[in-house]
Amino acid sequence: MKILILGGDGYLGWPTAMHLSARGHDVACVDNYLRRNLCSNEDGDPLFPTPRLPERASIWKSVSGKDVQVFIGDLTQWDFVSEVFRAFTPDAIVHYAEQPSAPYSMLSRRAASLTLANNLQTTANCVFAVREFCPQAQIVKLGTMGEYGTPNIDIEEGWLDVEHKGRRQRFLYPRQASSLYHTTKIMDTDMLWFYVRTWGLAVTDLMQGPVYGITTQESGSDERLMPFFNYDELFGTVLNRFLVQAVAGVPLTVYGSGKQIRGYLNIIDTVNCVRLALEKPAGPGELRVFNQLTETFDVLTLADMVQKAGNAMNLDVRVQHIPNPRKEAEEHYYNPAYTGLADLGLKPTLLTDEILRSMLQLVLKHKASIRPQSIFRGVKWA
User: Fold this and answer.
1) pLDDT at 253
2) pTM score, whole prediction
3) Which residues are catalytic?
4) Which of 16, 124, 246, 291 would bridge with 310, disulfide CB 3.0–4.6 Å?
């Protein structure tokens, strides 16, 4: 297929581009370096240098013999979007192109406004471009399990059958977001569902849990091909942050009780999930929803696992509970269904001591680059 990746420079976007390219798809990436620029502005640069997209594409060509086309520009601007879709008319679109951080969205009014404007306009422009230039193309959008919140009932895969006063109806599962970022993801889902019903689009919405990991099969031993790996509070996911804190000798910052349960997955599984959704697509007029996770942990369990693995490597890993800066339930019921992607063929990469040690060893190589002062910012929800 011809696959257009929106947000191809990000933590997930570039590994997805290589993964799809390696399997014979014709891939193009679009990005305006929003994440890079925000990280730089907020003093949260990644653990190791990451080349910009044209250089990454060139390196990938040298090691794989395969081309990844690159477009640099702002997807909130329709003139640029139409230019890209005319130059590379895709069979499918992978939509990562959003401000991806819940803490950043809660940082200030300015950050909130940027999150709203960027995320919603980019999704709208993606929909309008598919309608105008490639109406048969499937959209695979990265949502988040954070859309659901922590309801006191089982979380189904996107839909809920309701019986009320003797009548039945199937609804999108109720959402109750935990940040403004997650709220924009709910708005994305609602917008896509509207245009699925109105224009007959084919959409797969992947409700993804927090991702961890540094390498994929395609990055190999060339660190220039590894993802944009953040470890700060704004843009680093929790397990990635803990790994760097362990190496830096900074106590692992557990919010509140640490009993918050979420669904996690390795970055290797992320790229496989996206590929499976593309190669086994939704049909016209279908909004298909998968919960994209492979196992659940509470935060304290993750911290204990990192502490155990780090101490076995002679690191002095400590765990510190701090007042929770977020507005969230710390002890709650959490039972999400996640069978859809397994039914498509996903073979999960589960979190083991071996995987934790391998990630810690890679972080140790870059210990001198860690800036402990950039890890914790104390961004408060309320």
Assistant:
1) 96
2) 0.97
3) 144, 181, 185
4) 246
